[in-house]
């Protein structure tokens, strides 16, 4: 079982501006850690708002696409999997807007879908890309 198709779908949906579809990949509640700060996601609307703000910040730099390059996926244990990857956002010319390593913990729900319960960005994203996101 590989989660690569899920991450490819999330990248495509995010690039197309479908933040609701990307938000559906997250469980609630969940947490996103960015350096020493975190973002508590208590409902789907929180996730959509955060993703929308992030995408808006990328659009300032002519955002065009996101790529997830998975370097590791742990074996499934207690309906949980860890995925380590590099996330790259590119502009319309293919130049890198941002690139960072990330860790995702996913849980398989009762319906058989994998959902993100924990997400850590290593190292933190540039502050210009976090504008409007309620990191505390």
How would you describe this structure to a colleague?
- The protein is of the alpha+beta class and 136 residues long.
- Helix content is 24%, strand content 43%.
- It has three helices and six strands.
- The chain has helices at residues 4-15, 19-23, 44-59; strands at residues 26-34, 37-41, 63-73, 80-91, 96-108, 114-122.
- It has a six-stranded mixed beta sheet, covered by helices on one side.
- Elements, N to C (H/E): HHEEHEEEE
What's the tally of helices? 3
Proportion of strand residues: 35-45%
Residue-averaged pLDDT, rounded? 92
N/C terminus separation = 35 Å
**Sheet with the most strands, sense and barrel status:** 6 strands, mixed
- Order the strands across the largest sheet as they lie in space: 2-1-6-5-4-3
**Share of helix, binned:** 10-25%
Care to count the β-strands? 6
Low-confidence sequence ranges: none
Please supply descriptive tags for the structure shown above.
136 residues; alpha+beta; 6 strands; 24% helix; globular
Mind sketching the topology for me?
Elements: H1 4-15, H2 19-23, E1 26-34, E2 37-41, H3 44-59, E3 63-73, E4 80-91, E5 96-108, E6 114-122
Parallel strand pairs: 1-6
Antiparallel strand pairs: 1-2, 3-4, 4-5, 5-6
């Amino acid at each position: 079982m590989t989660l690569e198709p899920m991450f490819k779908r999330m990248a495509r949906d995010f690039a197309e501006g479908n933040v609701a579809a990307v938000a559906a990949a997250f469980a609630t509640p969940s947490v996103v850690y960015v350096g020493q700060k975190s973002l508590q996601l208590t409902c789907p609307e929180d996730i959509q708002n955060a993703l929308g703000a992030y995408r808006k910040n990328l659009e300032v730099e002519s955002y065009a696409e996101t790529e997830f390059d998975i370097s590791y996926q742990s074996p499934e244990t207690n309906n949980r999997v860890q995925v380590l990857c590099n996330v790259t956002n590119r502009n319309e010319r293919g130049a890198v807007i941002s690139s960072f390593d990330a860790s995702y913990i996913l849980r398989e729900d009762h319906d058989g879908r994998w959902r993100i319960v924990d997400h850590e960005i290593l190292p933190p994203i540039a502050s210009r890309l976090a504008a409007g996101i309620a990191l505390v």
